[in-house]
Specification:
Strand content: 15-25%
CATH topology of the largest domain: Phosphorylase Kinase, domain 1
CATH architecture of the largest domain: 2-Layer Sandwich
Order of helices and strands: HEEEEHHEEEHEEEEEEHH
Distance between the termini: 34 Å
Helix content: 25-40%
Radius of gyration: 20 Å
Amino acid sequence: MGEVNSTMGQAKVAKAMFEAKYYRGSVLEVTDWEPKSMKIPKLEQITLKQIKLGSFNGAIVFVVSTDCSSDVEAICKIYDDMLSPSTLRCSTGDGRNSLGQRLITGAYAFKEEKPVYERLRSKPEIIQGITPEYYGHGKIKTGSGDEWSIILIEHVCGKTLDQVDPAKLERDQRRVIMRKLIEADSDIMYYGRVVHKDLAPRNVIVETRTVHSGGNETEEIPEDPRVCLIDFVNSVFLEKAKNGRLWNPIFRWSWKWEEWAADESGAGGWLDRDDAENWMWEEWGKGKPEKGYRAVEKDDVIKVCGSL
């Protein structure tokens, strides 16, 4: 518990530092803009609308609006070295916080994440929507004269799965979300040759819609929501494509599903522990031609953690 409180304390300190430096309504100059989408062909400034606290893994995330030349609401990741291990004072002295999580500099995070978005954008085979649209990258200048790299991506309207209580959803709805999550994970690996390496509820967005009822507004998940993977700082590239036979998600998720299952008491979790494997075999065992998944037999599945 002490380690958790320590990390929470670091987050509060970092939040205060950022709110003093980047505040709602502030306008930042953008330089060296390199567009990757015609939605924002040029960019000279952004206006900060909302800070989105995350794991402080090399970048801070904002909702921003672009200047009048495009007028797009987007997510901006600012790779500010205020997030460096020395600034956040990790307790172990080896670039990790007290929970053993690796802390990296903004420059390193930008160098790792930008190429992933560029590669995924270049693969037309990848179904649109399973990652945010990539708008481009550049640099921002702060009032203090600092200059930091940024990327702009689509602002996906929804919640990360760590903000959703799966126990409040029907099993069929949870399965729809997990099917889309698992297939997205498989598609970026086999089409884009990208392995996420940090696939967790905080890095998956599920679409929500605003429902008006009795003068009140609530956010609800639709029956067939968009499911989107985010945060590719820890991702790695595969040197070559995997054998097409292994494309079927069962090979990778035959050992990963337990990370997303309910605990022994049945509380929490996105998959039901007692029937998750049966559900996966019903979903993908016979293959799925429209997705390029071949049929597999249970004897074919080799459960070697990290082999896929």
